[in-house]
Structure to design on (391 residues):
């Protein structure tokens, strides 16, 4: 929608990742320490490959912040690829003398075939470098900045793993978020977490990979973000686009999501009950099957997003494929790969939800300074009580 905008640039084995963020108000406290924890969380999770032993992601703020506060100008960030030193010739910006071996054995499930066809390349590397989920490090850094804005207003965004490799977790209520952070697979159910680790361990020696499902929750979100009036202002649609844009994400649901299709209306819809007082108003939904959004607008309940992540496409025991040069049958390309990225995927999904919410926040409460945003937010909250007219 353009109130909080960002671009990223960078190839997986190039020098690093560049981000430019536009739309932040002036006066927001922001430091590298606000970004570092999320970058570390994205690098974790059981089942990642050799690359994560090389990288130690750190986002440097190179513009838009002075003495710890945003200036209202674009914020620029930079993350170095530590692996780049091993790829200087293969990834050189200028032409090189040596002949670089091309990648031509197409990997099913990755960008290799559609990307090379679309851009007219004879070397899959020209596509895979940018298609790589290395770019999700940049999104998590941008998401941490969005999260910093939302934190000013008490909004908190978390994720946990619902399933890996067909092993399903039970979801405790309430969720112990510290336990999720301590879990090797970011799962709130310790028994299921053990079985998930076992599923990853079982897939690895087979040269295989596993996917799974994650859930993101945004807590402390006020009613009124998004809108029902146009398709591209509906917040559920904006969240779905943001989530499905993450590498390997294949399905998304709000609240009950797919489950709602199999239930009766009387069981699905969240009845509205009078209460003494809940967040400044005398009503509250009895349940939150809608996942905090009705008609594209936040209701004030937690936003709950569930998403499915496919198994990683690059297999150590490669799948049958064809060679881009000859069209002959070959096995797909393999150098190294993650076996499972479901926990990391949850962290990336948190970042995308934070970005969409920051955008919707500035759309509704936007201002040039943080204080102006705060005034607009508080002014709106003061209007959302009962509508009885005084005569
Ligand atoms: C955090 C993360 C790490 C990933 N690591 C790998 C990997 O090591 N090998 C691989 O083939 N795909 C990996 N992927 C998935 C591919 O990037 C993705 O499947 C590919 O870009 C094709 O896009 P699509 O699956 O969205 O259609 C990863 C995805 C995420 C979110
Ligand atoms: C670099 C990251 O993920 C990469 C995503 C990725 C892919 O194909 O998507 C392939 C792998 O890269 P490499 O071939 O260098 O091992 C992952 O490690 C990261 O998450 O930071």
């Amino acid at each position: 929608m353009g109130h909080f905008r960002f671009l990223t640039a960078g190839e997986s084995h190039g020098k690093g990742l560049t981000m430019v963020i536009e739309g932040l108000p002036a006066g927001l406290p922001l430091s590298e320490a606000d970004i570092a924890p999320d970058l570390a969380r994205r690098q974790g999770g059981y089942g990642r490959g050799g690359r994560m032993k090389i990288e130690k992601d750190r986002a440097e703020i190179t513009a838009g912040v002075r003495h710890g506060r945003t200036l209202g100008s674009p914020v620029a960030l930079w993350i170095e690829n530590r692996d780049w030193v091993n790829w200087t010739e293969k990834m050189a910006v200028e032409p090189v003398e040596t002949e670089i071996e091309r990648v031509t054995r197409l990997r099913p499930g990755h960008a290799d075939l559609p990307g090379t066809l679309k851009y007219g390349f004879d070397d899959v590397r020209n596509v895979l470098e940018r298609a790589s989920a290395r770019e999700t490090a940049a999104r998590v850094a941008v998401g941490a900045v969005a999260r910093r804005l939302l934190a000013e207003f008490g909004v908190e965004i978390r994720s946990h793993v619902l399933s890996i490799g067909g092993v399903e977790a039970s979801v405790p209520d309430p969720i112990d978020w510290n336990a999720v952070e301590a879990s090797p697979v970011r799962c709130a159910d310790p028994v299921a977490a053990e079985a998930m680790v076992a599923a990853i361990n079982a897939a690895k020696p087979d040269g295989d990979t596993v996917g799974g499902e994650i859930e993101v929750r945004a807590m402390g979100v006020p009613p009124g973000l998004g809108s029902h009036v146009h398709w591209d202002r509906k917040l559920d649609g904006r969240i779905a686009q943001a989530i499905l844009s993450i590498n390997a994400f294949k399905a998304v649901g709000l609240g009950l999501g797919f489950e709602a299709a199999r239930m009766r209306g009387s069981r699905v819809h969240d009845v509205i009950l009078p209460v003494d007082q809940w967040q400044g108003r005398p009503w509250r939904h009895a349940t939150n099957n809608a996942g905090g959004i009705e008609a594209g607008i936040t209701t004030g309940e937690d936003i709950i997003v569930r998403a499915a992540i496919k198994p990683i496409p690059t297999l150590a025991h490669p799948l049958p494929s064809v060679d881009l040069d000859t069209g002959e049958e070959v096995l797909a390309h393999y150098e190294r790969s993650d076996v499972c990225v479901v926990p990391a995927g949850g962290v990336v999904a948190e970042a995308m939800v934070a970005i969409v919410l920051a955008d919707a926040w500035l759309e509704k409460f936007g201002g040039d300074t943080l204080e102006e945003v705060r005034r607009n937010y508080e002014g709106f909250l003061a209007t959302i009580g009962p509508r009885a007219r005084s005569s």
